[in-house]
Design a protein that fits this description.
Strand content: 15-25%
Shape: globular
Distance between the termini: 12 Å
CATH architecture: 2-Layer Sandwich
Bound molecules: iron/sulfur cluster
CATH topology: Alpha-Beta Plaits
Strand order of the largest sheet: 1-6
Oligomer: single chain
Length: 92
């Protein structure tokens, strides 16, 4: 099956009011942060009209790409969701 069909099998539990990923306030995003608007497999990153990058962590697959891409700039605060929240992978 296609990857979209497989992803559809995963369930996502939102920990309301406690996003596990935050983008720190910035004026101009680094190239790494900016690239996340294209690279995030869950489409969590978007560019605002004023040119900042924002994240909506709902649906995050915890792949860690955004954490790696901003490792040197520290633009993102990244934590695993609390136990029981976040992506629930279904195998098989
Ligand atoms: Fe997207 Fe992966 Fe970052 Fe989650 S960890 S926001 S899926 S790039």
């Amino acid at each position: 099956p296609k990857v979209e069909e497989k992803l559809f099998q995963n369930r996502y539990l939102v920990d309301a009011g406690k996003p596990h990923i935050k983008v720190r306030a910035h004026e101009v995003p680094s190239a790494g942060l900016l690239s996340m608007t294209k690279l995030c497999p869950a489409g969590c990153y978007a560019l605002t009209e004023s040119g900042q990058v924002e994240v909506a962590a709902d649906g995050c697959l915890e792949c860690g790409t955004c954490r790696i891409m901003t490792k040197t700039t520290g633009e993102i605060e990244w934590n695993y969701p609390r136990g029981g929240f976040g992506v629930l992978y279904k195998f098989g």
